[in-house]
Write the structure tokens for this entry.
Amino acid sequence: MHTLLLSVVSEPLADAPRPAASADAELVAQLQQGREQAFRTLVERYQNRVYRTVLALLHSREEAEDVAQEVFVEVYQTVGRFRGDAALSTWLYRLATSRALKHRRWARAKKRFASFTSLLGFDNHVLHDPPDHAHPQAQLEGQQQLRLLLEQVARLPDQQQVAFTLRHEQELSYEEIAAVLNTTVPAVESLLFRARQTLRKHLQAPLPHA
């Protein structure tokens, strides 16, 4: 189990086709029976989506790998309590986004505390480095505009950032995003509208509309 988890996000796979709900339901049943192969299937099916979602929120490969691994650990530990009230993918996106946001809040608090202690003379350096924005697409294309977009998205309120990420990074439908955020489709539409309005104020490049 531990060895498997270490390899969960080291080399993200290409996106697997989205499985039918019945396939995920069968997978959950096998997970709840403690079958190790079922966990391997879960990782193969969802590791890239979880990793990319977390990376889009944290902009750090190392931190995204750690958080994505935590997501799968939590699934392994708590799947027995999963009752199927939401789709498996919805549950995974909820875990991924909540853990990423929690990690980011912790990192920011740690950085603020380090800066504060430095001002007081207790320390001479900041403990946490700022994110390096090592998004795969940014590295591949080398576009400054994309880097600026990522920086501005990171400044959005949490709910807007999650909605924007799930829509444009994971290409989820409004209905799927609403399920992840436990809200309504109109609320998702409002979140995305406000996110795009804010981003347009800071960027000259056109933003996606869908």
